[in-house]
Amino acid sequence: MTRKILYLFLTFSVLLSSCQKEKQLQKDLFGAIPPKTFAVLKTSDFSIFINQLKNQEWLRQQEYDGFLTYFTQSFLNHNYLKLEEESLICFTPAGKDRPAITLLSKHTPELVDLGKIKNKKVTSYTYDNATVKHYTLNNVEAYTVQLEQLFVVSTSKLVLENIIRNFATPIPQPAGLEKIYETGVSAKFALFFNFPEVIAHFDQYSTRTFNNLKEFTGWSMLEINLEKEKIQLDGITQAVPAQRATINAFASVKPQKSELAAVVPLNAYAYTSFTFDQGKKLIEALGNEKKNSKTKDSLSLAETLVEIGSIHLPQGDVVAARALDISLSKEALLAHTQVSKNFRSIDIFKFDNADLFRKQFYPLITTKKLSYYCFLDNHLIFAEKIASIEHIIANYLNESTLINQNYYQETLSSLSDYSSILSVSLNDNFKNLLKDRFKSDLTKDIEQIKTNGFPIAAIQLVYDTNFAHVHMVMQKINRPSGNQNAIQVGTIKTEKPINKAPFFFPYWRTGEQYIAVQDIDHLLQVFNYKGELVFSKALEGPILGQPQVVDLYNNSRLQLAFATSHQLHILAVNGKSVKPFPLQFKSPQTQALGVFDYANNHNYRFVTTQNNVVLMWDKNGKQVKGFQMKPTSSPILNTPNHLRIESRDYISIPEESGSLHLLSRTGEERLKIKEKIDFSSAQWQVEKNKFSSLDTKGKILIDEKAKLTRKDLGLQDNHTAAFKNGTWAISNENELLINDKRIQLDYGLYTQPAIFEFNKQTYITITDTQAQKVYVFDKNGELLPGFPVYGNSRASIENIDAKGMLELIVQGEKNSVLIYQLN
Q1: Shortest CA distance to 301 belongs to which of 283, 317, 274?
Q2: Which of 674, 621, 617 shows the shortest CA–CA distance to 640?
Q3: DSSP assignment string, 398-433
Q4: What is the rounded distance in angstroms from the CA atom of residue 749 to the CA atom of residue 754?
Q5: DSSP H/E element including 54
Q6: Which of 94, 479, 707, 768 could cross-link with 100 by S-S, CB 3.0 to 4.6 Å?
Q7: 284-335, pLDDT tens digit by residue?
C-alpha cells in the first residue's frame, strides 16, 4: 500500500511537459490546503529534505518501504525532481484505504524526461476553466494543474478539483490550523497535524478503537531535525479553548520528573507516564471527581501520588504509580492489606477496587481490572494477574529495568527534565504491540521494520500556559551498556513443585526448543517457549542425570532419551514412546543413561548401569550381545563415557575401589591402568589426545601408554566440574576455575557448572542455590553484564525461539521455571 501511494509522488515529477518562468505567487500555499486535511508537511527546500531522509541512518534501514525507496532513489538518484523552494505536502482523507497526497508549490519543479518512464499514458481535461493533466504511469495515477503560479499535483482527482473550485475564493482554514501554522512559519521543515483526525485515520487499520485519544489535543506543530544518527522533533500542541481536550487538564498541575522507568522491564513493549504535583486537581480537571465521590479510598490514594502510568508487557498491561511518601500510600490502602502471595520476600496484596484508576484518571488510564498490587520502594504496581506483578518484581530485583540502561539515559538527555507526559517505546519489542493493535494485513510490513542501533523512542509533553511543548527523539546508541544482558522474559508454572532442573528438548519442525521439567510426582511436563503445555507424561521415578537428544531414524526428527530407576525411555516430540521403548528393568539403575554413537551415523548404543553391571542396548531395544563387560569389583561411580583418540574408541568406567577401566567397544580391557585414583564426580574426557579428568585434588592426565600425571589444583573433596571442547569449569567451594582463570565467588552452595557454546562464544553457568543467584561467565572468566540473576537450580542456555538471541532457563520458585533473554 505505502509503495503505491508514494510511487504516485514519484510520478508528479514526470508529469510536467514544460518549464515555466517563476512568478510572484499571488495565492499563498496555506490558503490552498485542501479541506479536511489532517496533516501537512512543510519544506523550505524539498530537495534538501529528501537528501536528509536519504542520509538518516534509521530511515535508510527501512528500504523495503516505498517512502524511502522512491523518494530518495528515484527522485534524487535519477534527478526526477528538483524543487528548491517552499512547498507543502498535504494528507487528506480520500476513501477507506489511504489518504490522498497533494503537493502544493510556489514554483514548478524541474522538467523531467518522460522518455525514461515506460508504460505511461497522458490525457487532459478541463475543469472549471483549468486544464488538468491525468497521468497513468505503470498503472498508477496522478493529476496535476497549474493555477496561476500555484503548482498542484495530487493522487486524488476529487481533492485536486476541490482545490480548483476553491482557488478563486479560498475557504478559511480551521482556526486551530491557522494558529498552529503561525508557530512554524520560520521552520525549514515542519509537520502540522490534527491529532483527532490522525487518530480517526489510524482507527481504520486498528483492531481496536482509540476512543480515549480522540479528544486528547488539537492541532500540533513539530519542527523536524534529521541528523545522520538522530531524529528529533520539537514543537507545540494546542487545543482551542472551546475544545474539552485532555491535554488541558495538565494546566492545573505542575510537571514532575518521571521515574517510572525504574520499574519497566526490558521486555516491555512501551510505557506512558503522567506526572503531577496534586493528584486530586488532575482528577478534577479530567472531570472525574464526581464519579469517585462515593468511593471511600478513591481520592485519598491519589493524593499521595506524583506519577501514574501504564506499562505494556507481553504478560498484559499493568498500572504503575509513584508516591512522594510511600507510608501515606500504605495508609490509604489499609482496606486492601490481605496478602495473596509472598514473592521473593515481597507481599502481593489483593485489591478490591479493580477499576479505581480508570475512574479517576480516564482517559489517561484505561485498564479496568486491577486485582492485585505490591510496593516496590516508592512505587506501587497494580495488575489483573499476579504473574504480571511477579514479572515486574523479578526484573526490578535483577536491576533489569529501563532506567539502568545507558541508552535510556542518553536518549532522555535530549528532553526536558520535567514532563507532564512521557511515553517511551522499546522499539524492537514495540513491533509486537503494533502487530497486536493493527490488522493482520499490516503484519508483514510491521515485521520488516528495522530497529538496529535505535533501541528506544521517546515522546514528551510539558504543559505550559495554554499549550504544551512537544519533544520527540530517537537516536542511535553505538555502545549500549547496562544490565541489558539478562532480561526475564517469561515464567512457566507447574502445579506441583519441581524436582529436577529444567532442560531443553528441541522441536525439530521449527528449530525451537521446548522446555521440560519433572515435578515431585515424577510427572514430566514439556512446554513451548510461550509457556503453553505441549505434553505431560507420568514416569515411574525421577530422571537420572541429564536427558540426551538422539535422532534414531537419521531424518532430523529428534527424540529424547533418558533413564529412570527401572526404565529406559525414548520419547518423540509429541510425548509418545518410541517403540519398543520403554525398556523395563528389575534391578534399579544407579547412573544416568549413556548414549554412544561410535561412527556418528545414528547407530546408537544405549548404556545402562546397575550398581557394578553395565549393559548395552541398540536402537531397537535389543541387548548388544557383542558387548561383554564383566561386573566390576565395586559399584560404578559415573555414567560410562565414550572417548575417541584419533581412530581408537574407548569406554571409560570408574569404580568406587579407585580402578579406572578403559574398554574397547566389546567391553574388553583396552588400556590397563594400574594406579588407583581417588575419583571426583567429573567425567572422563579427551584433552590433547590424553584421557583427562579430576581426582579429589586436581587434574589427571593419562596417555595411551597408561602413563599417569597429576596437577595439583588445590581442590576440595566436594568440587564439581564440566568439560567441553578444551574448556574446564570447576566449582571449588567459593571459587570457580575456568581453565587457568580463578574467580572468587561469595560463599554459598553451588551447582555443578555447565558449559554452552554458540557462535564461537563459550558460556559457563553456575548457580548459588543458597543465595538464589545464577552467574554466567565467558571463557575468559568475565561475568556477563546483568548477572547474577535470580534462580535456584542448574541453568541451561539455548536459542529457544530460533530468532537469534539466546535464552537461559532455570528453576525459580519451587514450582516455576524462569526464562531470561541474553542480549
Answers
A1: 283
A2: 617
A3: TT-BGGG-HHHHHHHTTS-S-BSEEEEEEHHHHHHH
A4: 15
A5: helix 46-55
A6: 94
A7: 999 886 555 444 455 689 999 999 999 999 888 999 999 999 999 999 999 9
Q: Would you call the peptide bond into 314 cis, given omega within 30 degrees of 0 as the criterion?
A: no
Please give the backbone phi and psi of residue 610, each rounded to the nearest 5 degrees, phi first.
Answer: -125, 90
Residue 466's pLDDT band, with cuts at 50, 70 and 90, is confident
Q: How far is CA 151 from CA 77, 108, 132, 159, 247, in A?
A: 23, 6, 11, 14, 37
Q: How far apart are CA 464 and CA 238, in angstroms?
A: 10
The DSSP symbol for 251 reads G
**Bridge partners (DSSP) listed for residue 104:** 88, 152
| Cβ partners under 8 Å of residue 445, min gap 6 | 2, 65
- Name the H helices within 169-287: 175-182, 195-203, 279-285
**Residue 288 DSSP symbol:** -
DSSP string, 587-613: SPP-SPPEEE-TTSSS--EEEEEETTE
Cell numbers describing residue 299: 481520592
Average pLDDT over residues 692-721: 92
CB atoms within 10 A of CB 68: 20
Q: Is 36 exposed, middle or buried (0-12, 13-18, 19+ CB in 10 A)?
A: middle
Q: Which amino acid is at 706?
A: A
The pTM of the whole model exceeds 0.85: no
Asked if 325 contacts 264 with a C-beta cutoff of 8 angstroms, the reply is: no
* Separation CA 86–CA 188 (nearest Å): 9
* Separation CA 775–CA 786 (nearest Å): 9
Q: Is 583 helix (H, G, I), strand (E, B) or coil?
A: strand
| Residues near 505 by beta carbon (within 8 Å), at least 6 away in sequence | 513, 514, 515, 516, 526, 547, 549, 560, 573
CA distance 393 to 265: 9
Q: Is the pLDDT of residue 679 over 90?
A: yes
Could you tell me the strand order of the sheet in which 605-610 lies?
594-596, 605-610, 613-618
Beta strands (DSSP E) in 688-745 are 690-694, 698-702, 708-712, 720-724, 727-732, 735-738, 741-744
Give the Cβ contact number of residue 98 at 10 Å.
18
Cell numbers linked to 642: 565414550
Q: What are phi and psi of 381, to 5 degrees?
A: -120, 125
Give the ranges where 726-782 is alpha helix by DSSP (H).
none
Q: How far apart are CA 318 and CA 391, in angstroms?
A: 11
Amino acid at 427: N
Measured between alpha carbons, how far is 233 from 750 in angstroms, rounded to an integer?
Answer: 52
First to last CA, the chain: 34
Q: Which of 794, 756, 753, 801 is nearest to 506 (CA)?
A: 801
Beta bridge partners of 623: 617
pLDDT, mean of residues 388-415: 92
Average confidence (pLDDT) over 108-136: 78
Among 538, 591, 536, CA closest to 562: 591
CB 638 within 8 A of CB 648: no
